[in-house]
Amino acid sequence: MGDYTGQWAILPARVRYDRALPANAKLIYAEIAAKINEEGYCYSHNQYFAERFGLKPDTVSSLVKKLEDAGYIKIDVDKSRVNLDRRRIYLTGKPYDFTGEGGIGFKSDTGIGQKSDTVSDLNPRPIENNNLKYNTPYSPPEGDSASGTKKSKDKSRPQWKPERFEGFYDFYPLHKSRVAAVRAWDKLRPSDELIDTIARALRAQKKSDDWQRGIGIPYPSSWLNGQRWRDEITPTARAADTGGWAESREVL
Fold first, then answer.
1. Residues 6+ apart with CB under 8 A from 228
2. Torsion angle of the four alpha carbons 91, 252, 120, 215, in this order, in degrees rounded to the nearest 10
């Protein structure tokens, strides 16, 4: 069967308890969530899911279609792309929409009732890299090492302009792989002028149609490493961006 995708996968309650959804469709949703890459999509083909779970490809195709019809995933097919990357599967925000806005009725379309007030509306932050290599079951609190060794460095906090990084990370629409984002930030060591440029570009990109729909948003580390602030801004997003330099500095 090959290696595991990861030790964990996310299966939101709304998908998990959707009575209209077959159990194997929920299993495939969890696998898609585990296979989401740094660009924010899964490119696995139906044959992959069939081999993983002992299903027929036609059955997988039907289950994936049910997930799409339910609004839990969005599929983008572009035959101009190469081989495995032709089909991209994105997760949608529907599993976390408990308001019923936009015609989505939490009670009426699933029959599972309303969520408890103690349950967060937000998706739990995925564990960094989603595998045991980078995730030991327990780490002693800082300064509480039984071996008496030096305190380990907190990799989730940047060394370079930490307050500006927090502004960037809070403003970025996708909060995933924070440690990788910190590493990219410290490697880049952006000046205040570059951070202003990043703020203006990021605000404009957040207004693009794809980002508004949650499509194609790269991980913050990929955005920084790829210098995505240099990307061409669409006319629509540019027109919507009316903020000035002073306002962008307030953002980050």
1. 201, 205, 218, 222
2. -10
- Let me know: does 110 contact 102? Beta carbons within 8 Å: no
Over the range 213-234, which residues count as b (16 or more CB within 10 Å of their CB) and which as e?
A: eebebbbbbbbbbeeebeeebe
pLDDT along the chain (252 residues), means of 10: 66 92 95 81 89 93 95 89 81 76 41 49 44 42 49 83 92 92 93 92 91 90 92 64 46 56
- DSSP codes joined into one string, 96-131: G--S-GGG--TTTTT---PPPTTS-SSPPPPPGGGS
Q: What is the pTM of this model?
A: 0.44
Contact between residue 199 and residue 248 where contact means Cβ atoms under 8 Å apart: yes
**In whole angstroms, what is the distance from residue 104 CA to residue 98 CA?**
9
CB 61 within 8 A of CB 68: no
Could you tell me if 92 and 71 are in contact, meaning their C-beta atoms sit under 8 angstroms apart? yes
- How many residues in the chain? 252
Rounded CA-CA distance 28/6 in Å is: 14
In the three-class reduction of DSSP (H, G, I as helix; E, B as strand; rest coil), residue 212 is classed as helix
As given in the structure block, the two tokens for residue 79 are: 């035959």
Measured between alpha carbons, how far is 173 from 206 in angstroms, rounded to an integer?
A: 7
Element of type H or E holding 236: helix 235-240
